[in-house]
Amino acid sequence: MTLSSCKKIGNYLRKSMGPNLFVAVTLSVLLAGQSVSAQNFSDIKPTPQQTAWQDLEFGVILHFSTNTFLDREWGDGTAAPTVFNPAQFDPDQWMSAIRDSGAKYVVLVAKHHDGFCLWPTAQTAYSIKSSPWQGGKGDLVGDVARSARKFGLKFGVYLSPWDRHEPRYAAPASYDQYYLAELEELATRYGDLVEFWLDGAGSAGHVYNFPKIIETLRTYQPNTIVFADTGLFEYGDARWVGTESGTVGYENWNVIDRHGYLRWRPIEADTPLRKDHWFWHPNDQSSLKSVAELLSTYDETVGRGAQLMLGVAPDSRGLLPDSDATRLREFGRALHQRFSTNLALEHLAAGGSGTALDGNQDTFWSAPPGSNQATLQVSFPKPITIDHALTMEWLNDGQHIQKYSIDIWTNGEWKSVAEGQAIGHKKLDNFSPVTTSRIRLSILSSTGPAHIREFQLYRFP
User: Fold this and answer.
1) Mean pLDDT of the 27-34 span
2) What SS3 state is found at 284?
């Protein structure tokens, strides 16, 4: 619209509305214009809590409840509390294996959909208070939280909104108060929570008071990352990938759009250690995933810029099955073996330099100011053979890289061996083994100057 057209419309409105009403309407329009600004994906930035959480990369979610003793996945709320009695409960045994897997945090399912609570809540008798375990005096949430921190793992909780036992669930307002009271107990008793799982499964048409849930959590845990389905757009800090297969099947952009409104919502991809089973089941050895399957899962989650959340389940003894603990350690050793020799460091050993090549995630290389394309080149004193490249984008200022390629110098020219449309937190590219003495990361399109935390090169075993 031209300035002349605006003046004509203004004159018409003055005559038809009167001067006072015209001024009021004009002021309200101007104020509305000030409060609404166009959003661009590349302008959205993460919070410090989100970037710190993304750096954790790999966590474990623990399922252990009455279902464990009844060979169930989904409890209906009718299980007697007396069935819960793990005679050899030892969370240190869990955490030792989890730490050795390479995970950095654990989330405990403190209450699943059946409503049975693993801490001595004051809100219901349907909890470990009514079980024979430790004479009804135990606090499993507290024991697991202390053990996690003992082994250097951060701790979080899952509190199911859906409750198939609590009678108040049929009265939304009353149940909301019940749930908030449970949440307040968990948020005030067990130290800093790295993550809070807000699972919307089931629910039978119940509409929860999500604003009040987040308000209650934030009162006591301002830094906790809230995991939620993408549909709970306003309430989550991280989003579900949309499947329990442990796969991110697309180029991963951390910013998502709902109704034209943008938010930084990184992905967490959850998948169980045993195929299709979150809780332990007897006579179920064949469901345990192989190391190769777990490595593939890692490549398709962490290797695509997402968080891996691996489901682990103690058995009815209160211990991780020996096979599961062994598999976790095997997975951790395989990951360590893969990433133990970063060949890019040979560039530095030969006198080269580069903050993207030093193995230090606290440093980063920046493309020239104002640039939308750039090249990071690495030269070696003698040829090396590689088949994987690991690239990390510095995301504090937002995600900017839209297209890139990894190129090698061969037969007197550059040849692309990998390319993509997003790097994000971490991108793992694999290709057939190539031998070369010159490699480059080509930023082909970026919404602003590219920032690269790490560019690492590997030959996987």
Assistant:
1) 35
2) coil
Average pLDDT over the chain reads 90
Give whole-number Cα distances, 347 to 78, 338, 452, in Å. Answer: 63, 19, 17
> Cα–Cα distance between 400 and 403 in angstroms, integer?
9
Domain assignments of the chain as residue spans, ordered by start = 3-35, 48-339, 345-458
| Token output for 30 | 């101007």
| H or E element that contains 435 | strand 427-446
Closest CA to 45 of 399, 419, 412: 399
Give residue 94's region: left, alpha or beta (phi > 0; psi -120 to 50).
Answer: alpha
Q: Which ranges in 234-390 belong to alpha helices (H)?
A: 291-299, 322-339, 345-349
Say which CATH class 48-339 falls into: alpha beta
Q: Give the end-to-end CA distance of the chain in Å, rounded to a whole number.
A: 63
Sign of the four-CA dihedral 76, 82, 87, 88: positive
Angstrom distance (rounded) from CA 2 to CA 10:
12
Helix (H) or strand (E) holding 381: strand 374-393
Q: CATH assignment of 345-458?
A: 2.60.120.260
Q: Residue 60's pLDDT band (boundaries 50, 70, 90)?
A: very high
Q: In the block, which residue shows the tokens 């009403």?
A: 21
Q: Residue 182: how many CA atoms within 13 Å on its side-chain side?
A: 29
